[in-house]
Amino acid sequence: MRTALITGADRGLGLSLTLGLLEQGWQVFAGRFLPDYRLLDEACARYPLLRPVPLDVSSRQSILDACAMVRQETEYLDMIISNAAYMGGPNSSGFRGELPIDYSLLEYSFRVNSLGALQVMEIFLPLVEAGEMKRLCFVSSEVSSVTMMHRDAGFRYTMTKTALNVAARIMYNQLFEKGYTFRLYQPGWMKRVNPDGSRAEGADIDPDLSAGEALRQFLEDREDEQRLVLTDYLGHEWAY
Amino acid sequence: MDKVVFMTGIATSFDAELALAFLRAGDRVIAAGPHCPAVPQAVYVPFAPLCEGAGEALYQAVAGKTRSLDYFIDTSSAHFAGEDRRITDGLCPEEIIQSFRANTLAPIQALEALLPLLDAGTGKRLAFISTHDASVNWCGNTAGYGPSMAKAALHNILQVIKNKLFPDGYTFRVYDPLPGESRVNPVTSAAGAYTYITRDRAIDGHQIERRNDEKRLVMRDALGREWPW
Ligand SMILES: NC(=O)c1ccc[n+]([C@@H]2O[C@H](COP(=O)([O-])OP(=O)(O)OC[C@H]3O[C@@H](n4cnc5c(N)ncnc54)[C@H](OP(=O)(O)O)[C@@H]3O)[C@@H](O)[C@H]2O)c1
């Protein structure tokens, strides 16, 4: 049986990825962060191989506790999908903005989106080492691309994804020759998911659609695994 | 000549040589942080980044010395224990955070605080000493998560800031001094930084809108090479 860990799986892309893998017969340890979202619990009734695990990626202790829980059920993981992210918040990360820059929120964003992803990989790595597939996937973003950056404010979120990309590069530099393979994915501008599972207005694509393409890219082996590239939901490649 | 330069710190021999290059040219150098014995001519101001009121205190300290600034130079290159650890060695997450605070947040806070003085100056040039170890394209290391992630985050922020401030006349420099490269030493690398920071980049006089190299945020190194992000 194939097994995966997915962070930030209460809703949105994380939930869609979770359900997509369950449909394909995987066992999924799904990181739960939001107490008021019940979509994972509802899915448990339909999918016996779904295992929600409390997981706050900004806390090393929470990651260690989640890993201990996962270890009670499996001796290996085939794939980790780092998806959890802190987005949104006040407009306090730009120059000449209405609000002064909020440095503690910048740090929190880095702790979740960059360092959190790195620590999840670090702490769960022995389980991936024991698995066959050894695939480490990172949900990044188009705004991680310094080359293509179009924004002139709101760097609290954008900076964390460039930091995430370079962390993935450093991991790749060590682990690729040990048989690990990597994915960096830009999911597109996705609709937000409400607590009842309905979609908020705005945005381009449904998370289910992006998750379908993500799983195609995450699960397929490639001839050119040595290339660490950022690809999007259309299969296009992004400049870093 | 007669420009006023702010440096976020004079800590390494590269920083000292860079400060001396500006002083030799007749410019004034104001630096944050501890006094550097090799550069007694600089004016030093205290800066305790990320503490309550840090930005305002820095602004007041610098505004007490000058009415305007022409160059802002971030020299942050703080290093912390455990940077040699690979992911399989057990990482030091709090030291990665320390690196992020010192190498990303501190210079941005200094820049935010001093922007009114830079607005009042004529130079409007913002320079950042960085490293190609933060290049997602090129980083070849298996360790050094803290400094690489911190500078990569900074590169992203710089592109966002450039989009905001370029229309106001600001230009940007990102420079890799290549510590450890045998073909340069702190003196020659700082000489390269000085010319790179002070020299304007090409603008094709006939087609200003189409061929203005200043529009591109790039990282160039002590050997004159450009690194991809
Ligand atoms: N939405 C887009 O248009 C878009 C575009 C490009 C990239 N992405 C990336 O795609 C991924 C999924 O985005 P999405 O739209 O599905 O967002 P989402 O619905 O907000 O899902 C992300 C999940 O991560 C959770 N999370 C936040 N902090 C966490 C923490 N400390 N520990 C564990 N989980 C935490 C979020 O909870 P909270 O809601 O409480 O924060 C949320 O449940 C993210 O990595 C995002 O950066 C999204």
Explain the overall architecture.
The complex is a heterodimer of chains A (240) and B (229). In chain A, 39% of the residues lie in helices and 15% in strands. With 240 residues, chain A is of the alpha/beta class. Chain A has a single domain, classed as NAD(P)-binding Rossmann-like Domain (Rossmann fold, 3-Layer(aba) Sandwich), CATH 3.40.50.720. In chain A, strands 3-2-1-4-5-6-7-8 form an 8-stranded mixed sheet, with helices on both faces. In chain A, strand 2, helix 2 and strand 3 form a beta-alpha-beta unit. The longest helix of chain A has 27 residues. Chain A is globular, with a radius of gyration of 17 Å. The model of chain A has no long low-confidence stretch (mean pLDDT 97). In chain B, strand 6, helix 5 and strand 7 form a beta-alpha-beta unit. Chain B is 37% helix and 14% strand. By secondary structure, chain B is of the alpha/beta class. Chains A and B meet through helix 4 and helix 5 of A and helix 3 and helix 4 of B. The structure holds NADP nicotinamide-adenine-dinucleotide phosphate. NADP nicotinamide-adenine-dinucleotide phosphate binds next to helix 1 and helix 4 of chain A.
- The appropriate CATH architecture of chain B is 3-Layer(aba) Sandwich
Q: What is the domain total for the residues of chain A?
A: 1
Low-confidence stretches of chain B: none
Whole-Å distance between the termini of chain A? 35 Å
